[in-house]
Write a structure and sequence with these properties.
Layout: E1 18-26, H1 27-40, E2 44-45, H2 60-82, H3 99-163, H4 173-180, E3 189-196, H5 200-210, E4 216-221, E5 226-227, E6 234-235, E7 237-244, H6 247-259, E8 263-265, H7 271-327, E9 331-332, E10 338-346, H8 350-363, E11 371-375, H9 391-399, H10 424-439, H11 442-457, H12 459-463, H13 469-476, H14 478-495, E12 511-513, E13 526-528, H15 547-580, H16 584-615, H17 621-630, H18 645-664, H19 666-679, H20 708-732, H21 735-738, H22 755-771, H23 776-814
Antiparallel strand pairs: 1-10, 1-11, 2-10, 3-7, 3-8, 4-7, 5-6, 9-10, 12-13
Helix pairs in contact: 1-7, 1-8, 2-3, 2-7, 3-7, 5-6, 9-10, 10-14, 10-23, 11-14, 15-16, 15-20, 16-18, 16-19, 16-20, 19-20, 22-23
Protein name: V-type proton ATPase subunit a
Membrane topology: Multi-pass membrane protein
Keywords: Coiled coil, Hydrogen ion transport, Ion transport, Membrane, Transmembrane, Transmembrane helix, Transport
């Protein structure tokens, strides 16, 4: 959490000293006081009305008004987004509106926008209905015109036959009578409209069944989708005309049309009336189009005006809502003239808070000033580290570990206990260094550095933009990635690898060929011809016969040394924690036996590694460590590295065996004795203690029951975990070697394909292979494949893999030695911490 100045003076090893404060604020200056404290952002309020529901609190009405204003702003935002506009991030001038005037203005704008939307919806529906009506007039007119043409032709044909000679094909007398006498012809009714095309077949089938085939349906496909007046969506439709006889058939047809969502429109047979109606409909469509366009322009202008100020309005509403929400956490004095607040603040902020209270009193013209007094409490204070943009990302790596919910933010995290040693201080160096041990390649490190420098140089621009999830995560950890890149360049120079290619950067190699041709250099071996290569791995080792045995041995032993060193650091930090909190039991019966046990075994192994490197001995360290347990009294023979090694091994083995019961038994019995003494009144704390939290840090309170069985089981679990973890944690550090091991196979378990080998494969099998074809096209393709493989696999996937392994080494192997992480985060009331999703 970045609060305060960009680069504050800080002590990250211990959290800031906190104090519980009570504020007695006059009612007339309460609002302004809370507002000024929100601007300061260094006071965390406690809810003194936790037993009350939100509706029983003092400022429930104001909270309801703020909620209604937030709803109106969400409504505006939805309409702006739907219109294809975007809220302006630029300030359109200072907002001079107060809370009441803004509430009135938002109400007026909402009413105006709702009215515009209603009118627009009504006009748009009328426009769509007229469009459909025009289509019906055109398509149905074609039906009747073609039918009348066919009827006239048929009439002429019948009249010609009637005037000619009679034949067997002449119509019957009844048919002749019906044709010649129009009064005896059957009069058919009709219904016209549009039906969705996907329902047209079912519509026709239901009509036929419902009327028993006593209808005639004519349909015509509309070429383009039509906007439905009811739903407002584009729908493909057919124009239909249903001919029927009788009122019962008409009733059935109308019900079926309603069931299928068919829009019906009137139609007249007279061609003159048809043309007149089409002309009138076209005229109304033109008028409606003009009216709708004018309304859309007015609506767009209104939304643009709202969009220019909606961010400022949203911020003002958020501030008002947060102020009244905080005021609801305060208790009202009996006289109802003062409000009482309690909360945590850093000790260094005392003067700033007092000055803020005085300024609020003066600006409110209050006759009585607010009272600031420090309360004494044994309650666990929140944890607050003053971080900056560089250290905040490393602190978040530490805080992200755990499965407990933060009491304030409800997010899953494990925050350091109040003033316990903070792993974030050491993580700034150890995390990128362990990452670089696995990732080390100064070519890849330079690529990673250039990418993160882009984010750092343009951080002001990116910080004001809304980024995607992945880009935002990368931008937030830009300084972590920068440190990882710098350490990768350093370890890459030690490994002497630039995209897996060695260079003689610090002078010529110390080794030469046995013959002048050097044809057998990789099979027969090299001889030392000059002084040792001054820095890092000699470039001649790469590609030689001894490369794999040498580098694997070197990196495996180096991983063990780094792991034992970091685990020792964790145990040493547990000593400083115990000393800081005055817990002598943890020092004598936890720190001391843990140091003895770890260093009797793995500290001794580290010593053997260093001695072997310094003496050039050929001793088998596996054999030494195994038979240290199986046969501690046997002679070491050729595996002896120094005089007295056998005696030292026996002593260390006995110390390791003694350390286990030392960790297990004394602490539970001493805690029980301490608890009994407290109940007998033999343990007191001074009343004038400078820090009340230091009293009874590790002793159960008087009202707490002491369950010896639970304490003993907990200590048993802790002892077993440490003893087994000392072995498994040391083995876990071998991932540093596994991710750097120069092997040609996949590593199973927690490990992945070696970074160095992957880089070598891409270089040899892609780039050099493409170069050997002497073809420009193949070379270009090879370069493209090499670049994408390097970026996609080595710079992204392998970076993520090494990052996760380094994360695990810090969370599990390092932090579990001393980090309790049962605190909760200091979450002050601050306007600067508002996010876009806060309401």
């Amino acid at each position: 959490m970045v609060v305060g100045e960009c680069w504050p003076t800080m002590d990250l090893l211990r959290s800031e000293p906190m104090q519980l404060v009570q504020l007695i604020i006059p009612a007339e200056s309460a609002y302004r006081t809370i507002s000024y404290l929100g601007d300061l952002g260094l006071f965390q309020f406690k809810d003194l009305n936790a037993e009350k529901s939100p509706f029983q609190r003092t400022y429930a009405v104001q909270m309801k008004r703020c909620g209604e204003m937030a709803r109106k702003l969400r409504f505006f935002r939805e309409k702006i987004t739907k219109a294809g506009l975007s809220p302006s991030t630029r300030s359109a001038g200072s907002v001079d509106l107060d809370f009441h005037n803004l509430e009135v203005k938002l109400g007026e704008l909402e009413a105006e926008l709702i009215e515009i939307n209603a009118n627009d919806e009504k006009l748009q529906r009328t426009f769509n209905e007229l469009l459909e009506y025009k289509l019906v007039l055109q398509k149905a007119g074609e039906f009747f015109t073609s039918a009348q043409s066919r009827a006239a032709a048929q009439q002429r044909e019948l009249e010609g036959r009637h005037n000619g000679e009679g034949s067997i094909d002449s119509p019957l007398l009844l048919e002749q009578e019906m044709i010649t006498d129009p009064s005896k012809q059957v009069k058919l009714g009709y219904v016209s409209g549009l039906v969705p095309r996907e329902k047209a077949m079912a519509f026709e089938r239901i009509l036929f069944r419902a009327t028993r085939g006593n209808v005639f349906l004519k349909q015509s496909v509309v070429d383009h989708p039509v906007t439905d007046p009811v739903s407002g969506e584009k729908v493909e439709k057919n124009v239909f005309v249903v001919f029927y006889s009788g009122e019962r058939a008409k009733t059935k047809i109308l019900k079926i049309c309603d069931a299928f969502g068919a829009n019906r429109y009137p139609f007249m047979e007279d061609l003159g009336k048809q043309f007149q109606t089409i002309t009138e409909v076209s005229g109304r469509l033109s008028e409606l189009k003009t009216t709708i366009d004018v309304g859309m322009v007015h609506r767009s202008n209104l939304l643009q005006t709202i969009g220019c100020q909606i961010e400022q309005w949203s911020l003002l509403v958020k501030k008002e809502k947060s102020i009244y929400h905080t005021l609801n956490m305060l208790s009202v004095d009996v006289t109802k003239q003062c409000l009482v607040a309690e909360g945590w603040c850093p000790v260094f902020a005392t003067n700033q808070i007092q000055n803020t209270l005085q300024r609020a009193t003066n600006d409110s013209n209050s006759q009585i000033g607010a009272i600031f007094q420090v309360l004494r409490t044994k309650e666990l204070p929140p944890t607050y580290f003053r971080t900056n943009k560089f250290t905040s990302a490393f602190q978040e790596i530490v805080d992200a570990y755990g499965n407990q919910k933060d009491k304030i933010s409800s997010s899953y995290c494990r925050i350091a206990k109040y003033q316990e040693a903070n792993p974030g201080v050491f993580t700034i160096v150890t995390f990128p260094f362990l990452f670089a041990v696995m990732f080390g390649d100064w070519g890849h490190g330079i690529c990673l550095l250039l990418a993160t420098l882009y984010f750092i140089i343009r951080e002001k621009k990116f910080s004001s933009q809304k980024l995607g999830d992945i880009v935002e995560m990368t931008f937030g950890g830009r300084y972590v990635i920068m440190m990882m890149a710098l350490f990768s360049i350093y370890t890459g120079l030690i490994y002497n690898e630039f995209f897996s290619v060695p260079f003689e950067l610090f002078g010529p190699s110390a080794y030469g060929c046995r013959d002048t041709s050097c044809r057998d250099a990789s099979t027969i071996g090299l001889i030392k011809v000059r002084d040792t290569y001054p820095f890092g791995v000699d470039p001649k080792w790469h590609g030689s016969r001894s490369e794999l045995p040498y580098l694997n041995s070197l990196k495996m032993k180096m991983s063990i040394l780094l792991g034992v060193a970091q685990m020792n650091l964790g145990i040493i930090l547990s000593y400083f924690n115990a000393k800081f909190f005055g817990n002598d039991i943890n020092i004598l019966h936890q720190f001391v036996p843990q140091m003895i046990f770890l260093n009797s075994l793995f500290g001794y192994l580290s010593l053997l590694i260093i001695v072997k490197w310094c003496t050039g001995s050929q001793a088998d360290l596996y054999h030494v460590m195994i038979y240290m347990f199986l046969s501690p009294t046997d002679d070491l023979g050729e595996n002896q590295l120094f005089v007295g090694q056998k005696f030292l091994q026996i002593v260390l083995l006995l110390l390791a065996l003694v350390a286990v019961p030392w960790m297990l038994f004394p602490k539970p019995f001493l805690l029980k004795k301490q608890h009994e003494e407290r109940h007998q009144g033999q343990s007191y704390a001074p009343l004038d203690s400078s820090d009340p939290f230091e009293m009874e840090q590790h002793i159960p309170h008087n009202n707490e029951e002491f369950e010896f069985s639970e304490v003993f089981v907990h200590q048993l679990i802790h002892t077993i975990e440490f003893v087994l973890g000392a072995v498994s944690n040391t083995a876990s550090y071998l991932r540093l070697w596994a991710l750097r091991a120069d092997r040609n196979n996949l590593v199973t378990g927690d490990f992945s394909l070696a970074h160095s080998e992957l880089s070598s494969v891409f270089y040899d099998k892609v780039l050099l292979l493409a170069w050997g074809f002497n073809n420009v096209v193949i070379l270009i393709i090879g370069i493209i494949v090499f670049v994408f493989a390097t970026v996609g696999v080595l710079l992204i996937m392998e970076t993520l893999s090494a990052f996760l392994h380094a994360l695990r080494l810090h969370w599990v192997e390092f932090q579990n030695k001393f980090y309790e992480g049962d605190g909760y985060k200091f979450s002050p009331f601050s306007f600067a911490l508002f996010s876009e999703d806060d309401e």
